[in-house]
Structures are given as structure tokens and as C-alpha cells.
């Protein structure tokens, strides 16, 4: 077997081209597999060093390596970075004019390209495939790399239909090794991508997904911008970071707010002018201490080693998304923070979005299961890292010691009676057909708070009026949120976020289900400091 010699060539490229001394983690084994002509599936966390796994085979083997990458916006950066180390890298995409495209095509046919980046929709075109057939027959193709390969999984969090066309490349160029890479690692996604890309004989390389230098913290949301500000000021003043928000509007407002408070914050979302987006991205990459406030449109493929924190001011839709986004912190291995503020409205809003979303019932169930896992992570009293890794099918023997629940073990309390009071109120409101009430009204009723809305609807006559005056409003919000998170209460599919009983509610009302809740001190909710609640 020629493997050791092949790997020797890989090591030589690692040193001479990239200037690194040794392979990291499984890089050596992966590169050995591909250099030897075999296929590979690589599951490695963000920052793990996936790029070299295909760049080195592309450089060390004869011919051109084809790299499928989903984001045109990033190709330019990737190609520049490779050129800076002397590799002959090019891309083909829709931003090029025909003169530029034909220059690249000529270079390809002349065997002068080590790495070619292409978007999946371009590789789906028969004209591109024919061009690459010719390259294959002339100088040869060294490897086909499929980056962000989870995009082929229909049930994943990032599905791109164009990825489905990549399944037949193995038949088209049977002698060219293929390598599929992703930082998304659930069993389901893993199986689906192997199947759809028809990588039946590939060797699978599953790295540990643990990122020990990232501290995970989830705090109850109170006044998210203030909380975010004090988190940044107290712990990451002057550091580079990413703040994720759900909507474009919230991105812009948060960026403005932070900038007004003296933080170098820039917005990024798909609705911004392409030039503004590119300028903000390059400032983030090149300047020190920029805080990028962004929707999840930002980040994939961004390689900035010293991002010191990733903050979410809205709840991510899945643990996969959360882990991929937080994984953009601390690629350099130095201590970093993943901070999330999460509240009642997040749950209501996301449940409502799922209930009213397009797509069939199976799709909604899938979204719902994703959200449930995310909520369970938010509400857990156990080690967060352990829970995330378990979600990806990996075990952590001991609690990590570097997440908020490890640093300060949350207390729990028996919330059965308050839960019964709350659910009884929902029952009574549900009987008033045609009226829609969210959490605020329910809490006002429980606390016996007279408002125009409670008076107008005669809610002060309800049997549950004022029976919950022993808890503060903030505490009730915590109860409500946790009941929703645990599925003991539901959001109706009426598009208004009306709260209704769930299947689990009956057990609580009858007393057969005990409700255990996290204790949240109002102080912890306000100060981002210790982050525990
Ligand atoms: P991923 O694509 O898995 O998120 P990258 O390929 O961008 O990760 O690598 C993350 C960082 O680690 C990059 O800055 C890269 O240069 C660096 N890196 C990768 N492999 C090695 C290595 N063997 N030695 C030193 N640094 C490495
Ligand atoms: Zn922990």
C-alpha cells in the first residue's frame, strides 16, 4: 500500500505551502485516504481544519481539484487566501464577465489551475460538466470536494436543492476521489448526505465535536440589548464578535444601538446592498475588534480565528444551527464565549411560525422536534456541553466545568401548583370562543392586575383571578416559558400566538405530572455577568 508515501507528499505540502508543522486531529488520516484515491466523508466542527483536508490533496495530486462551495460571496476570499500561499486557485461563478470566464477556462484546459471553486448551481450545468470532462481528459481532476455537504440533506437546517445534482459525479468521474465535508453532525444528516451524494464506499471520519475553549451560557431574556451591552462591556470590550438576531430590522436596530454605545458594530443581512455587505464583511475580517450584528446569512465559511464571542439575542431554530453559529467563536483555541438570551416570546413566536409554516405535516413535525431540542438545551439544569454533544451522538464522560450550569448549578423548584393555576386560566379563556389571549393577559389575570383589557373582557370575574399574586410577573413569565418549552402548554395554529392546552397539560391539571422548574433569580436575568439563572 502506497499510503505512507502519499501522506509524506501531503506533509510536504502542509509544510512548504501552508507553513504548518503537523496535521491536526484526523487531518492526516483523511488526507491519506484521499491522496490514495479513496472517498471520504468528514464531520468536523467549525474551526477543526476542514479546508486543508481537500486543499492538500488538490495540490499534492496530479490535476485540478474541484471545490463545490455554496456561497459565491466567499469564493473570492478563499481564492485570494490560496493565491497568497502560492497556489493556483480560480473560481467560476455568475459574478464574472465572459472574458474573465474564458480566461479561467483556458487556464483550466492548459492544466494551470490547482483548485477551482464552483457553486453547486454552476456544477449542475451540463456546459460546466463538459468543460470539466475536458480538463479530466487533459491535465486530470485531482479531487472533487463538496464543502458544507449538509446542504444536500433535505431535512437539515440549510437545504440547497442544487446540491442534489452532485450525486452523480462519482459515475461521471469514477477515478476521481470525492470528499464531502460538514460541521453538522447529527446521525440523520450524516446518513442522508452519504446516501444523496452516493458515497457508499467512502471512509467516514467523525471528529469529536467538543470545543472546550468555548464557554456556553444561556440567560433568561429581559432587556436583550441592555443585557448584550453589559455582556460585551464586562467581558469582551474591544473584542471581535458576532451577534445573531432573527430579523433584518432587529439586526439594524441592534447594530445602531451598540454603535451609539461606543462599540464598533456593523450590520449584515441579505437585504443590505451587496457592496455594503461586502465592505462590512471585509472590515470584520481585517480590522480588530469589530462586532458583526447579523442574521444567520452571515458566517458560513468565514475564517476569522480570533472571534472571541458569539451572542444570540433570539433563539436559534435548532441545536445544529446553534452549534454551527457558536462554533465560529475561538477557532484559534483561546477562551471564547457563546452567549444566548432567550425568553418567552422566542418560544411563542417560533411555535407560531412552525404552526403557520408552508410545507407538509412531516416538515412541521421536523421543525418542531428541532425547536424542542433547542428548548431542552435552554432549560436544562445539567451541563450544556454534555447535552449538545449527546445531541450529536457523542458522550462527554464528566460535566465540562466550562458552561453556566457547571459553573453555578441551577436550583430547581416544584412548580406543579403554579402550573395548575396557569393551565386552569388557559382552560377558562379557551372556553371564550373567538377571543385570543397571549401570555401577558394570562399573567395579568393570575396576578389580579386590573387593566383596560382585563376589565373589558370581564376577566376579573374569572375563578382564577388573582390566585397567582404570590409570584412576581417575571416569575410567571419564567413558569409560562418553561411550560411551553416542556410541551405542557401549546401555541394554537391561529397565527396569533394564542396559548392552548397541549396533550401534556391534562397530567398537570390532574396532578399526575409533577412540574420541575428552574429557579431564576431576577438579578441573574438582568446582569449578564455570571450568566447563570
Ligand atoms: P473549518 O473549515 O473546519 O471551519 P478551517 O479549515 O477554516 O476550519 O481551519 C481553521 C483554522 O485552523 C484556520 O485558520 C487554519 O489555517 C488553521 N489550521 C488548520 N489546520 C491546521 C494545522 N494542521 N496546523 C495549524 N493550523 C491549522
Ligand atoms: Zn458544563
TrEMBL record:
For this UniProt entry, what's an example GO CC term? bacterial nucleoid
Against InterPro entries, the record matches this protein to: DEAD/DEAH_box_helicase_dom, DNA_helicase_ATP-dep_RecQ, DNA_helicase_ATP-dep_RecQ_bac, Helicase_ATP-bd, Helicase_C-like, HRDC-like_sf, HRDC_dom, HRDC_dom_sf
DNA damage as a keyword of this entry, yes or no, is: yes
Q: Which PROSITE patterns match?
A: HELICASE_ATP_BIND_1, HELICASE_CTER, HRDC
**Cofactor(s) for this protein?**
Zn(2+); Mg(2+)
> Which residue ranges does the record assign to the Helicase ATP-binding domain?
31-203
* Catalyzed reactions: Couples ATP hydrolysis with the unwinding of duplex DNA by translocating in the 3'-5' direction
- Its top-level enzyme class, in one word, is isomerase
Describe the location of the Helicase C-terminal domain by residue ranges.
224-375
Q: Which SMART domains match?
A: DEXDc, HELICc, HRDC, RQC
Q: Which UniProt keywords apply?
A: ATP-binding, DNA damage, DNA recombination, DNA repair, DNA-binding, Helicase, Hydrolase, Isomerase, Metal-binding, Nucleotide-binding, Zinc
> Sorted alphabetically, which Pfam families does this protein's record hold?
DEAD, Helicase_C, HRDC, RecQ_Zn_bind, RQC
Extract the GO molecular function terms from the UniProt entry.
Answer: 3'-5' DNA helicase activity; ATP binding; DNA binding; four-way junction helicase activity; hydrolase activity; metal ion binding
Write the Enzyme Commission number(s) for this entry.
Answer: 5.6.2.4
One GO biological process this protein is involved in is: DNA replication
Q: Where are the transmembrane segments?
A: none
Q: Which domain of life is it from?
A: Bacteria
**Family according to the record:** Belongs to the helicase family. RecQ subfamily.
Q: What is this protein called?
A: DNA helicase RecQ
Task: Give the organism the record lists.
Answer: Amnibacterium flavum
Amino acid at each position: 500500500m502506497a499510503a505512507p508515501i502519499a501522506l509524506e507528499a501531503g506533509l510536504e505540502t502542509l509544510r512548504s505551502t501552508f507553513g504548518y508543522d503537523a496535521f491536526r486531529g484526523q487531518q492526516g488520516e483523511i488526507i491519506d485516504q484521499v491522496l490514495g484515491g479513496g472517498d471520504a466523508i468528514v464531520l468536523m466542527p467549525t474551526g477543526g481544519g476542514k479546508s486543508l483536508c481537500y486543499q492538500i490533496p488538490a495540490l499534492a495530486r496530479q490535476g485540478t481539484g474541484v471545490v463545490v462551495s455554496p456561497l459565491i460571496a466567499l469564493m473570492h476570499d478563499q481564492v485570494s487566501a490560496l493565491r497568497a500561499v502560492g497556489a493556483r486557485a480560480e473560481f467560476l461563478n455568475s459574478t464574472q464577465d465572459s472574458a474573465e470566464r474564458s480566461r479561467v477556462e483556458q487556464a483550466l484546459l492548459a492544466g494551470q489551475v490547482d483548485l477551482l471553486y464552483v457553486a453547486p448551481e454552476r456544477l449542475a450545468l451540463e456546459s460546466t460538466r463538459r468543460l470539466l470532462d475536458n480538463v479530466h481528459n487533459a491535465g486530470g481532476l485531482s479531487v472533487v470536494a463538496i464543502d458544507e455537504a449538509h446542504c444536500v440533506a433535505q431535512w437539515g437546517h440549510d437545504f440547497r436543492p442544487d446540491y442534489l445534482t452532485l450525486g452523480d459525479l462519482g459515475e461521471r468521474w469514477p477515478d476521481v476521489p470525492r470528499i464531502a465535508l460538514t460541521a453538522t453532525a447529527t446521525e440523520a444528516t450524516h446518513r442522508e448526505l452519504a446516501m444523496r451524494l452516493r458515497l457508499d464506499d467512502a471512509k467516514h471520519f467523525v471528529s469529536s465535536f467538543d470545543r472546550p475553549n468555548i464557554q456556553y451560557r444561556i440567560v433568561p431574556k429581559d432587556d436583550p440589548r441592555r443585557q448584550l451591552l453589559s455582556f460585551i462591556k464586562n467581558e469582551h470590550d474591544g473584542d471581535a464578535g458576532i451577534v445573531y438576531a432573527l430579523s433584518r430590522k432587529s439586526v439594524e436596530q441592534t447594530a445602531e444601538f451598540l454603535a451609539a454605545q461606543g462599540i464598533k458594530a456593523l450590520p449584515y443581512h441579505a437585504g443590505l446592498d451587496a457592496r455594503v455587505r461586502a465592505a462590512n464583511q471585509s472590515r470584520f475580517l481585517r480590522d480588530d475588534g469589530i462586532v458583526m450584528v447579523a442574521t444567520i446569512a452571515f458566517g458560513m465559511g468565514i475564517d476569522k480565528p480570533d472571534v472571541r464571542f458569539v451572542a444570540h439575542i433570539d433563539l436559534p431554530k435548532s441545536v445544529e444551527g446553534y452549534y454551527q453559529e457558536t462554533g465560529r467563536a475561538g477557532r484559534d483555541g483561546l477562551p471564547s464565549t457563546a452567549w444566548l438570551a432567550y425568553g418567552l416570546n422566542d418560544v411563542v413566536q417560533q411555535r407560531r411560525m412552525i404552526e403557520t409554516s408552508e410545507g407538509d405535516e412531516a416538515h412541521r413535525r421536523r421543525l418542531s422536534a428541532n425547536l424542542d431540542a433547542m428548548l431542552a438545551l435552554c432549560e436544562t439544569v445539567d451541563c450544556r456541553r454534555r447535552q449538545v454533544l449527546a445531541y450529536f451522538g457523542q458522550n462527554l464522560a464528566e460535566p465540562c466545568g466550562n458552561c453556566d450550569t457547571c459553573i453555578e448549578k441551577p436550583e430547581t423548584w416544584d412548580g406543579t401548583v403554579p402550573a395548575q393555576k396557569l393551565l386552569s386560566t388557559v382552560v377558562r379563556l379557551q372556553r371564550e370562543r373567538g377571543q385570543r389571549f397571549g401570555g401577558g393577559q394570562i399573567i395579568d389575570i393570575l396576578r389580579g392586575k386590573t387593566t383596560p383589557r382585563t376589565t373589558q373582557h370581564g376577566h376579573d370575574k374569572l375563578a382564577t383571578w388573582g390566585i397567582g399574586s404570590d409570584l412576581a410577573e417575571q416569575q410567571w413569565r419564567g413558569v409560562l416559558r418553561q411550560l411551553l418549552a416542556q410541551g405542557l402548554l401549546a401555541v394554537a395554529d391561529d397565527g396569533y400566538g394564542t396559548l392552548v392546552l397541549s396533550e401534556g397539560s391534562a397530567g398537570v391539571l390532574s396532578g399526575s405530572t409533577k412540574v420541575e422548574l428552574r429557579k431564576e433569580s431576577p438579578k441573574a436575568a438582568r446582569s449578564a455577568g455570571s450568566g447563570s439563572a
